[in-house]
Amino acid sequence: MNSFFLLFIGVPALEVFLMIKIGSKIGALSTVSLILLTAFIGIYFAKIEGIKTMRSGVINLYQNKVPIYEMISGASIAIAALLLIIPGFFTDTVGFLLLIPFTRRVLINLFMKKKIIKNDDKDANTLDGEIIEDKKDEL
After folding, report:
1. Domain ranges of the chain
2. Rounded distance between C-alpha atoms, residue 23 and residue 21, angstroms
3. First to last CA, the chain
4. Which of 35, 68, 84, 127 could serve as 42's disulfide partner, Cβ 3.0–4.6 Å?
């Protein structure tokens, strides 16, 4: 089954299920208030983490280093902000996990290892070589 289709149907279904379960425990008004509160708090922390990441990236640029981690971190903060705006408890949890620097680093390293392993499999059949010509051009 197409993973995008599963994501497109599965995540909203999970969100509705969680809202119903949590709403039955704490009440409808409290559930809506909690969803709005997590959105506001999440966006605030996304702004703070984004500014920290921008500073770190600029410092790396001044030191003539390529800010690769900062670029990936900035993209994950943007994804976290988007997930926090979407109403729901599952997306808020994933968004907050992406905002916390320790868990963001763990998730980025896990993702990068997975990508590096896939790229290494493609390069396993590659043979590096050098062409040496015996004849030299004579003038």
Report:
1. 36-122
2. 5
3. 66
4. 84
AA letter at 53: T
- pTM for this predicted structure: 0.74
> CB 95: neighbour CB atoms within 10 A?
26
Q: DSSP label at 136?
A: P
DSSP 8-state code for residue 88: S
* Longest alpha-carbon distance in the chain: 91
Write down how long the chain is. Answer: 139
Phi (first) and psi of residue 137, to 5 degrees:
-70, 125
Q: What is the CA radius of gyration of the chain?
A: 23
